[in-house]
Fold this sequence. Notes:
The protein is an alpha/beta fold. The protein has helices spanning about 30-40, 55-70, 110-125, 145-155, 165-180, 185-195, 200-215, 225-230, and strands at about 45-50, 75-80, 100, 130-135, 155-160.
Amino acid sequence: MTRHPQLPLGLALRDSARFNSFYAGQNLETVQGLQQAARGQGEAFIYVVAPVGMGKTHLLQAACVDAAACERSCSYLPLRELLDFTPVVLNDLEQLDLICIDDVTAIAGRDDWERGLFDLFNRVRQGAGTLLMAGDARPDQAGFLLPDLVSRLGWGVTYVMKPLAEQDVIAALGCRARARGLELPEETAQYLLKRYPRDLPTLFALFDTLDTASLVEQRRLTVPFVRAVLDGSA
Length: 234
C-alpha cells in the first residue's frame, strides 16, 4: 500500500509540484540529485541554496510526490510557516524515509528551533532516512547561532541553484503549459515577459489565471486572448 506524504498542521502539496513540470535549465544536476534522493538512492543529506522564486519549494514538494510513488513515507515542512509553533513539530520525523524541510534559514537566530533542527539531523544520521533541506543562503552565511548546526548542514551535498536566462524562462513556461495539456506559443511567452515581472512565481500565477480562462472559454493562448484576460477586458 502506498504511503502518502504526511503533512502536519493542514499543509498540502501543490498539484503542480512534479519533477516533470520543472524546467531545470542549468540546474539539471540539482534536479537529478533530488530525484535520486527522493527514491532512496544517492545522497542522504542535501542542502539546496536559492533565492525566493527559483523553485526550491517546487523541487522539495516534487521529491515528496516521487517518494510516495515509491512507497516511501515522507513529510514536507516549510519552516517559515511554522515559526508560531514550537520545534516539537520536528519530533519523530526521523522515523520517516524522507524529510523535506523548506526555508531552513527562517529559523536563524531562534535558539530553540536551531537546537531542534540540530537534534533532528543527528537522529536522521543514526537511522536510514533521507533529509532534504532548502534555504536562501548557505549555512555559514545564514546567521545561525549554533556552530554545530552550521557544521551539520554542510555535511551533505550542497547545490546552489543558478538563475534562468530569458530563453530558460520561456522554456519553463512551456514546460508548465505542456504539463497541463496546453500549448504556449513563443509570441505569447515573449508578450508575458515584456509586460510582466520575469520572476517565475509571478509568471506562473499569471499562467494559472490563463489556464482557467482557457478551459472556461475553450480558447488557445494567443496574444489577443492573453491580453484580454489579463487586462480584465475579456
